[in-house]
Amino acid sequence: MTDLTSLHYTDEHEWIALEGDVATIGVTDYAADKLGDVVFVELPAVGTSVSAGDVCGEIESTKSVGELYAPLTGEVIEINDAVVDDPSLVNASAFGEGWLIKVRVDAADIDGLMDRDAYVALTGGEA
């Protein structure tokens, strides 16, 4: 089980795990639950530059279509092909096998993100 208090969060319901200068990014279980059954995930190509706050992909569910926003600026160094092939991983394991992309970032940029307590407050205690 991932230590949820060690992650950083955005108000777009994404989580970020930082290891050195590599950020692993996914959507939270709260977001996955609100989306419903995820049926399609579109991710940026490896080598793509992403900018914090900009759309970098799409996630579709049986309920809606949503945009994925880059929480940090950097270069995509890996995508989770397993999620592209089986989008239900987002629902089944949002904080594990359902991660989306890995981005090489400036680790100092993480300072603008929320900690677990702030994210739980944002979701009204539902996260």
From TrEMBL:
<feature type="modified residue" description="N6-lipoyllysine">
    <location>
        <position position="63"/>
    </location>
</feature>
<dbReference type="InterPro" id="IPR033753">
    <property type="entry name" value="GCV_H/Fam206"/>
</dbReference>
<dbReference type="Pfam" id="PF01597">
    <property type="entry name" value="GCV_H"/>
</dbReference>
<dbReference type="InterPro" id="IPR017453">
    <property type="entry name" value="GCV_H_sub"/>
</dbReference>
<dbReference type="InterPro" id="IPR002930">
    <property type="entry name" value="GCV_H"/>
</dbReference>
<keyword id="KW-0450">Lipoyl</keyword>
<comment type="subunit">
    <text>The glycine cleavage system is composed of four proteins: P, T, L and H.</text>
</comment>
<dbReference type="InterPro" id="IPR003016">
    <property type="entry name" value="2-oxoA_DH_lipoyl-BS"/>
</dbReference>
<dbReference type="InterPro" id="IPR011053">
    <property type="entry name" value="Single_hybrid_motif"/>
</dbReference>
<comment type="similarity">
    <text>Belongs to the GcvH family.</text>
</comment>
<protein>
    <recommendedName>
        <fullName>Glycine cleavage system H protein</fullName>
    </recommendedName>
</protein>
<comment type="function">
    <text>The glycine cleavage system catalyzes the degradation of glycine. The H protein shuttles the methylamine group of glycine from the P protein to the T protein.</text>
</comment>
<dbReference type="InterPro" id="IPR000089">
    <property type="entry name" value="Biotin_lipoyl"/>
</dbReference>
<feature type="domain" description="Lipoyl-binding">
    <location>
        <begin position="22"/>
        <end position="104"/>
    </location>
</feature>
